[in-house]
Amino acid sequence: MALFTKCIFEFIGTLVLILLGDGVCACTSLEKSKGKGAGWVVITLAWGFAVMCGVFISGPYSGAHLNPAVTLGFAITGQFPWSDVLAYIVAQMLGGFAGAALVYIFYKDHYDATPDPDTKLGTFCTMPAIAHKGRNFFCEFVGTFLLVFIILTFTTEENTPTVGVGDLGALPVTMLIMAIGMSLGGTTGYAINPARDFGPRCWHALAPMKNKRESGWSYSWIPVLAPMAGAAVAALCFVLLYK
User: Fold this and answer.
1) Is the dihedral of CA 226, 232, 238, 241 positive or negative?
2) 192 and 51 in contact (C-beta within 8 Å)?
3) Which residues are within 8 A (CB) of 202 and not within 5 positions of it... i.e. 6 or more apart?
């Protein structure tokens, strides 16, 4: 299949991931939304299901990375060609940007009704609960390490028998995202995906939004670089232990 076609599906899958993922953040946070105050459990469940939907859409055509960190991890382990990495990452970033734009259009009245600029930013991208860049980096590193390492274990022969985790398709990744969010998401909001954070953050910066704060650029490098570092170390550990 042509690389362009694969990138189109990475774009669409990531768009749907962000539309549903940032959508639940908007639903549970913005004023006058019927879902306001639904809480962390709803958010983590919806993010897991958002990943599942993106995987079902793009999986048959692109492999459904939907995350530059996952793409990097597969490339390091030799399961994805390095020549395609940049194209996948660009498609994922653009999908994240477009998904965030759709969330804004969908919830435009509620963004207008919400006076708190921090709440608006939080529907698009992550910010730490307690600002401590070293620890924030560590948290994103660990979360993404687990994400990528465990996804890689799904590819092992022992995990893909006739009846096993490999035959369940997107369900293991869905549950993995939920587990990371529920267990480790409280510190930084578990970006664990540069496209999930950077694309929507760029949209926030450009959006014609009332009562908007700056887009948290002093923190923005952490949910980009920490996931990539975590993915790289996870892939190297996988090669060491399983290859």
Assistant:
1) negative
2) no
3) 97, 215
Q: Structural domain of residue 220, as residue ranges? A: 3-242
Kindly tell me if the per-residue pLDDT of 67 is higher than 80. yes
Residues 117-142, mean pLDDT to the nearest whole number: 98
Q: Quick one: tokens of 50? A: 């958002």
| Residue 72 identity (one-letter amino acid) | L
| Cα atoms in the Cβ-side hemisphere of radius 13 Å centred on 30 | 23
Average pLDDT over residues 109-115: 97
Q: How many domains does the chain have?
A: 1
Residue 133, pLDDT score? 98
3-state secondary structure of 179: helix
Reported as a single tens digit per residue, the pLDDT across 178-217 is 999 999 999 999 999 999 999 999 999 999 998 999 999 9
The secondary structure element, H or E, covering residue 58 is helix 40-62
| Residue 45 belongs to domain with CATH number | 1.20.1080.10
DSSP reduced 3-state for 238: helix
Residue 88 near residue 64 (C-beta atoms within 8 A)? no
Q: Which of 103, 127, 108 has its CA nearest to residue 50?
A: 103
Residue 59 to residue 61: CA distance in whole angstroms: 5
Reading the block at residue 213, the tokens are 């704060």
As given in the structure block, the two tokens for residue 82 are: 């390095």
DSSP 8-state class, residue 156: S
Residues 57, 215: contact at Cβ < 8 Å?
Answer: no
Mean pLDDT (the chain, rounded): 94
